[in-house]
Amino acid sequence: MRRVNPGIKTLLLAGSLLALILIIACGGAATAPAPESDSSAAPSGAAAGAQPAATAAPSGSSAQAQPAATAAPAQPAAPSGRPTEAANPTPTVEPVEVQAPETDWVHQGKHGRTMKWVARNNPGFWDVHYGASLTTTLTPSGPRFNQLVEYNPVNPEEIIGDLAESWDVSEDGTVYTFYLADARWTDGQPVTASDIVYSLDRITLPDAFRGRTNSLRDFYEHKTAEVIDDRTVRVPIKFPAATFMVNLASDYMKMYPEHVAGPLTQEDVNCCPENMIGSGPFIFKDGSWQKQEAYEYVRNDDYFKAPRPYFDGFKVFLIQDVARAIATLKVGQADGTYYPVLATYTEFVEQLEHDTDGRMRALFMENVQRAGLNYNWLVEPYDDPRVRTALWLVIDQEELVEKILRGNGTVGTHFHVGFAPNESVEALYELPGYRRDADGSKSQADLDEAKRLLAEAGYPDGFSGTITTILTGCTATSAQWVSQVWKNELNLEMEIESSDVATLYSKWRSNDYEVIISCGSGIILPDPSDILNQWYGMDTMRNSGNWTTTEFDRLKVAQAKELDPDKREQLFTEMVDLLRAEVPHFMPTGWIHAGGTLDYRVRNYHVPRTIQMIHKLDHMWWDENAEKPPIGTGYQP
Ligand SMILES: *[C@@H]1O[C@H](CO)[C@@H](O)[C@H](O)[C@H]1NC(C)=O
Ligand SMILES: *[C@@H]1O[C@H](CO)[C@@H](O)[C@H](O)[C@H]1NC(C)=O
Ligand SMILES: CC(=O)N[C@H]1CO[C@H](CO)[C@@H](O)[C@@H]1O
Q: Are residues 572 and 554 located together in one domain of the fold?
């Protein structure tokens, strides 16, 4: 079937990390070959890979087929083209020529229109450093802020400057120097280097909960960044890392104004959007948030990326009920789902395109949310790996994907689909948990083995327990389905405890549950280290019981330092083996596609690799005279 972004399936992750690393390797050479096609360009020496990670990215773009990518934003000349000097340990920082980040499309954009979007969840925590959720934190709070660097909204494969106009990297790959654009907070104060230092230190504040920004701690040591002058900041990192910039460009790595955020408590920032401001394209409209109703943003007329943003503002209608949201879109009371691609609407959007005579266009992103069984591995009986194995083995993942996720997904893997060779679909179908009998049914050997393991663990007659989940959508349906399978196959009596998202997250974080069934947690970054960050970090929500092993720790550290893509892939392959053997606190049961819809007159939206990327809306505009594409062809940028 048609996909808006046909490349995503094959490129997802396997491709993307490679692409990033190759872009790195290609350096600043303007004639860099298309990253995917030139594997010979892989970095040979350690330091080479790390350094130009980001610097080189803009130029890599011109090699790609994106129409708008011709204009390389702020293209630092620095270390990119340099030969590998891995032997030279002296960090030297070379200033770079700063170019205006001009791009062709910027002047095609049209101003006007207050957009109306539909979203499902109420905002939860407004602090983007703190909240661990796309729909309750990033989408409501994100458009007020900038990062230091970002994924290019018109070519999401590459990393470009956001508040940083340019940057360079020391020869040994351990010191980044960022040169800031002339930007202002929305109270008129300038964005300074000390705001950047403050923000990096706030993200890495010891003992503070950092839902989706925790990964910065792997690279950056709290309190080590330095102000060089008002617009220059020096950021040392712990080791030359392939994925420092990949993480720093995440939409969650927002920069905050020290003079506003400094005096606020964590609770002040979480509770009330009125308490904070940013430098971003839109300004939160004070008092506009009404639970179950809506919230509003207005245009930042003083945005440093003028003429962006293009919309006068936008209003987000909070509509829990998907059918009602679809009806709202159908009658033209909203211009799209917010943010365009989210899991919730996948099964409705193709129909909507037909029902609206092509006005609302279908958008898809493949394999971006992970479903799985989350065990509290510290409490009985889930502390026994035999129990964890049995409960996972009886799940018919194909049936789960077909029936509950309605075909919009893939069976579960430990890392991004297609990344580790050990997890190719062919390899998987040979394995326990995935294999099938000749008649196509779930492997009887797996079902028998599950019963045997449970008996061996001391539960020949099953046990009773609690599944914690949320009330709605495929999460609720899959929890019910799983509990039924466990009852039928293993005689478990599971009570289903449903709550809202905020309550679920708070129980998850405080390790106050037995089993959590989640239909989908979104990956953030197009790199498998993202799964290590989110599911295997210490003291993170999805690993509140701190599961790890000595060997797994070793592999986690090794992959972060490994700059050779083949060797790094091998480390992930070893992690897959280890996870299969250990059966940890999370066992994957599927991947889910995401879908959404936009009016065809919304222009310049480019589907990124994950649903957590590119949430500022400062590149999109409304064109009343846009041409409507034929029905059934989805959204066309
Ligand atoms: C997990 O580790 C963190 C420190 O990294 C600690 O504060 C927390 O209590 C630990 N959680 C459990 C359940 O042991
Ligand atoms: C990867 O998978 C293959 C086949 O499934 C297996 O033989 C091998 O041991 C696995 N591990 C590694 C590290 O290659
Ligand atoms: C692979 C895929 O996208 N399958 C389905 C997703 O859901 C819609 C609606 O149920 C189907 O039309 C797709 O074929």
A: yes
